[in-house]
Amino acid sequence: MSFILNIETATKNCSVSIAKNGETIICKEIAEEGYSHAEKLHVFIEEIIAKSGISVHDLVAVAVSQGPGSYTGLRIGVSAAKGLCFALNIPLIAVDTLQTLASQAKVSEGKIIPMLDARRMEVYSAIFSAELKTERAILAEVIDENSFKDFTEILYFVGDCAEKCKTVLTKGNFVFLENIKYPSADGMSKISYDKYQKSDTVDVAYFEPYYLKDFMITAPKKQ
User: Fold this and answer.
1) How many angstroms separate the CA atoms of 193 and 203, rounded?
2) CA torsion angle 74 75 79 85 (round to 10)
3) How far apart are CA 98 and CA 116, in angstroms?
4) DSSP per residue, 135-155
5) Residue 163: closest CA among 144, 150, 176
6) Nearest by Cα to 154 from 184, 137, 138, 177
7) Within its chain, how far is the Cα of 191 from the centroid?
8) Which of 87, 99, 103, 200 could join 187 in a cystine, given CB atoms 3.0 to 4.6 angstroms apart?
9) Full-model pTM
């Protein structure tokens, strides 16, 4: 049996899960306005290990959300994951945050567009098929009334951008699944197990989260 610890801290949701052969057996998470990852993450990990009835030495890998997302949140999650992997001498798996978010939309048609808030009308987004195949890689983009206008199939939007984006994304084939706001470690379970089976791991020493930092750089105001 393959037990994997999944860690998701890219957004306001501090989320951890333990999965057995790709199926979540326990998940603990909390989403707060103020980021509580530094205080909650290690406590949550200890709690779910205890409740699952396994030992940390039963883990075959640790999976962590690789971003994009909160700089601080990603650093906290990756640091915890690396520490466990070093201590236990097990591999580290990096999981795309937007793929995790998209996986929480259970649809049979159309496309899934996960979006995470950056600032103003800017978002981090990607496009996935209903089968969760990547159809457009991650972009940092400004959303306006022309965004996604060429798509005729149903587009399902998930993430924490619904409130600001639904005012401009108003086409009849646009559907906002507002109950899916943040990525969850529960959604990482199948993805991380698939990666583990393929030995799709990252270097524990050198892995860095995907911040998309260039997107946040703005030109100085003219004097």
Assistant:
1) 17
2) 40
3) 8
4) EEEEEEEE--TTTTTT--S-E
5) 176
6) 177
7) 11
8) 103
9) 0.92
Are 60 and 4 in contact by the 8 Å Cβ rule? The answer is yes
Token pair listed for 11:
């957004």
DSSP state of 193: H
Q: Are 6 and 189 in contact (CB under 8 A)?
A: yes
What the block records as the tokens of 178 is: 């507002």
DSSP for 93-126, please give it. EEE-HHHHHHHT---SSSEEEEEEEEETTEEEEE
How are strands ordered across the β-sheet holding 134-142?
134-142, 122-129, 111-119, 155-159, 174-176
